[in-house]
Amino acid sequence: MKAHIPSTVLFDWDGTLCDSGAASLRAFRASLRDFGFEFTDEEYRTVYTPRWYHMYEAFKLPREIWKHADQRWLHHYTSGEEPGLICGAPDVLAELSRRGIRTGIVTNGTRSRIEKELERMGLVSEFKAVVCHEDVTHSKPHPEGVLKALELAGCSTDSCWYAGDTPVDIEQGHNAGVFTVGVLTEYVSADRMRESRPDLMLDNICELPDALYRFTSTTSEKILGGT
Question: Nearest-CA neighbor of 140 among 160, 28, 148?
Answer without folding.
Answer: 148
